[in-house]
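Workshop exercise sheet. Pairs work together: one partner reads the sequence aloud, the other fills in the structure field after running the prediction. Swap roles for the next sheet.
Pair: D.N. / O.F.
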Amino acid sequence: MITLTTDDDFEAMYEIINDAAQAYEGVIPADRYHEPYMPREQLRREIDDGVVFWGYREDGELVGIMGIQDVRDVTLIRHAYVRTSRRSQGIGGKLLTFLMGRTSRPTLIGTWAAADWAVRFYEKHGFVLVTPQEKDRLLGRYWKIPARQVQTSAVLADRRWLDLHRRYPPNLSHPRAI
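Structure field:
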């Protein structure tokens, strides 16, 4: 069952994020990975900045979370994590489908470029990588992240965003980027 998270879920959310983010160790640049991956203070700031978290529950236990945030003229999907022990069971896809049903706005997702599994997951759900130039522009406009993270990230867009921004030519150096 998918439900809006509450303050009572904060510790479980913190645990899920930091459990799932262990997959980034040795994959993303070493200067971007630390333990905990997302400290409690950062999670609190994300919530205070308008990220609304939804959770997937089984037998009352929170096993996955995903955030949604309206920023300017788009919706961002933020902080998608599923407990390591529950991966590859369709939980992330259910959360993403649910959140996409909650917005009619063009939607963007940022993730680590080196996290191939995350990029493939979003592509499987209809998102398309944007060009590196467009990625830099979008991250600067819609996210509050350090320059180093911009360098090492990827942005994927949904069909609504792509239909509004067809003027950008495909990046021929990356076969999946448009």
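Discussion prompt: The longest helix spans residues 10-20. What would you look at next?
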